[in-house]
# Entry
Amino acid sequence: MAAHTDLLVVGAGPYAFAVAAHARAHGIGTTVAGRPMSFWREHMPPDMYLRSGPDWHLDADGVHTFEAYFEDRGLRPEDHAPVPIGTFLDHTEWFRERTGLDVDERLVTALDRVDGHFEATFDDGTVLDADRVVAAPGIAHFTSLPSWAEHLPEHRRTHTCDLVAFDQLAGARVAVVGGRQSAYEWAALLCDHGAERVDVVHRHPVPEFAAVSWRFVDPYVEQTLAHRGWWRDLPAEQRAGIAAEFWRVGRLTLEPWLVPRLTPTVVTRRPGCAVVGVAATDHDVRLVLSDGTAFAADHVVFATGYQADLAAVPYLAPVLDRVSTSDGFPDLSPGFETSLPGLYVVGFAATKDFGPFYGFTKGCPSAARIVVSEMLA
# Structure
């Protein structure tokens, strides 16, 4: 017979940790399956920095916070601003230790619902029976590329999700397609590692580089906690206004600490442009822009973001026909539950019904509180 757990959390990133720790604290037998923080460790450069500060944390109970980590480690937050990714990763390990959160590092390869319960098959062939499942799929499943990317040889193109080492591009001419934080941070990292030239191409104007406060998100998260289904029930015009604010602060205003690293003799900004033509040769690729300019590059980096597509999550294949979706997003209840009873989805894939803030670690504690309270209701 298969082993049994009350709750299986598939994934081992920030949302998974937050939900699992809160569920266990409320007496729900919980198993977490996945490689701890694998997206952060394998798909983010080790020398990158976070946009968030120590006020963003994982603990739904507000005890084992990022600020508590700094205090426990005897560190001053001001000495870690901006926050290096390594510091955040150390904090997540500290959180696991403090909450006694064990992780089964096997991968779930298939999830099915049979006779009113879930059966999760692991990569070693074993099966775990679960009453409920929280899926926290990482955004590596959801990388988005423009249609013309397929005309480039694979060795000459990379999404930022997969470019974490830059030494191989020392001395190279690189085109970065996109104009948000990842585009300009990857441009800075390319400069740090000796790229010969970096062209940053994007449709919107050059973003502003200025310090911003993310505290504007706090009231929206509080509203989500106070009024179940708050985001989804807002009038479309009000949702659009909040999304525009999020875009203005979080997307069109970038971190000022990038500026000194964007070497003027290396980086050329090409705002208001789209790639309208592309041709690959044996030696490089040639890009033609909508303003009529053209240039050659040795490599193209796509900082083109992510698009939810639940069908791209392999282990969900057996249940997809029972999960209602819209534009690739699962249709969720106010408690993060899908149309398949007992299956919940948190993280980036939940942003359609809960707002853009739930694609960031900011949403971890509140998502955990909502999911667990739904299970205990």
About this structure: The mean pLDDT is 96.
